[in-house]
Design the sequence.
């Protein structure tokens, strides 16, 4: 009878054995079936005809009465096609996730462990615990401690950089590192940590086989980040569809648009062109009137509503102000020199 402590060790590997038919021919494995299915994925065209056919179906279902409702139906048609495409992509992503779980599980987990280990200096307590959850993360910690143990045995001590790495591997937060010094023999500390990591890796390896079997059976989405992003995108599409449907179901109390509302992009009739009148004699046009002065007016220069604008008088007044300012500056310089 298998001891309780070794109940996981007696289980067969997650990789299925090869199967043969009664004639001795090897049957294709599940991985080969998934690979062939991904390679033979049919291309679904997303062209104008598909959008038109979907719009016709939705027009018959919703029966729009206004141009705004017709626009909403068109939006729902396009969004529904995008939802269908997202679901097709999700099926392919799940198949590819199962295929990678069977063929490249250890490689993917090692890459995740390296990406997580690069954050060890910033979040030592959190990352050190997270690395112990997988056998690949434990392997990364074991390699670091082996290098530290070798350095301590050959040199007798650690350099400040190596001591900082050891403190990171121990998961000491940055707030409690001030004044920490190496206690005891560094080589003994490294060997003690290696023994603890060996036990942690044995437990993580058992759980890793379970995670791999669930991923191969398409029963786990924990490590599939692409699938999470795709589902968030699909949720946003469903929210937009629900908004369009809510607008279609709403009843408008107004019988028509407001009388002051006009289409800003509609073509407006241009102003009527009048025939030019003969020019008035020069004596009839006052020289001091200019409805559009070539400069900005000051507050004291505004003639007021209904009054003519005397441009020469305004220019003469500005020139006089400039002369007064120049004289004031000269008098100030004379007082400073005196």
Sequence:
């Amino acid at each position: 009878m298998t001891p309780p402590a070794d109940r996981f060790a007696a289980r067969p590997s997650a990789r299925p054995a090869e199967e043969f038919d009664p004639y001795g021919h090897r049957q294709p494995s599940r991985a080969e079936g998934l690979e062939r299915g991904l390679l033979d994925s049919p291309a679904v065209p997303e062209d104008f005809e598909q959008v038109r056919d979907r719009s016709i179906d939705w027009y018959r279902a919703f029966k729009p009465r206004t141009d705004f409702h017709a626009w909403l139906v068109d939006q729902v048609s396009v969004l529904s096609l995008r939802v269908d495409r997202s679901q097709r992509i999700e099926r392919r992503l799940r198949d590819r996730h199962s295929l990678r779980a069977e063929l490249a599980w250890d490689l993917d987990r090692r890459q995740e462990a390296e990406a997580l280990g690069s954050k060890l200096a910033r979040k030592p307590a959190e990352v050190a615990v997270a690395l112990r959850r997988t056998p690949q993360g434990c392997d990364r910690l074991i390699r670091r401690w082996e290098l530290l143990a070798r350095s301590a045995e050959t040199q007798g001590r650690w350099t400040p950089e190596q001591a900082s790495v050891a403190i990171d591997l121990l998961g000491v937060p940055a707030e409690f590192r001030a004044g920490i010094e190496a206690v005891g023999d560094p080589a003994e500390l490294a060997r003690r940590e290696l023994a603890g990591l060996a036990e942690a890796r044995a437990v993580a390896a058992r759980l890793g086989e379970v995670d791999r079997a669930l991923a191969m059976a398409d029963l786990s989405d924990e490590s599939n980040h692409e699938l999470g992003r795709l589902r968030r995108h699909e949720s946003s599409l469903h929210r937009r569809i629900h908004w369009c449907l809510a607008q279609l179901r709403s009843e408008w109390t107004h019988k028509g648009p407001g009388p002051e509302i006009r289409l800003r992009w509609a073509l407006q009739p241009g102003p009527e062109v009048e025939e030019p009148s003969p020019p008035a004699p020069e004596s009839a046009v006052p020289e001091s009137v200019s409805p559009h002065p070539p400069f900005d007016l000051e507050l004291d220069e505004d003639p007021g509503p209904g009054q003519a604008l005397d441009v020469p008088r305004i220019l003469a007044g500005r020139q006089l102000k400039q002369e007064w300012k120049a004289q004031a500056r000269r008098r100030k310089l004379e007082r400073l020199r005196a």
About this structure: DSSP finds ten helices and no strands in the chain. Confidence is low (pLDDT under 50) at residues 1-16, 282-290. Residues 67-103 form the longest helix (37 residues). The two ends are 116 Å apart (CA to CA).
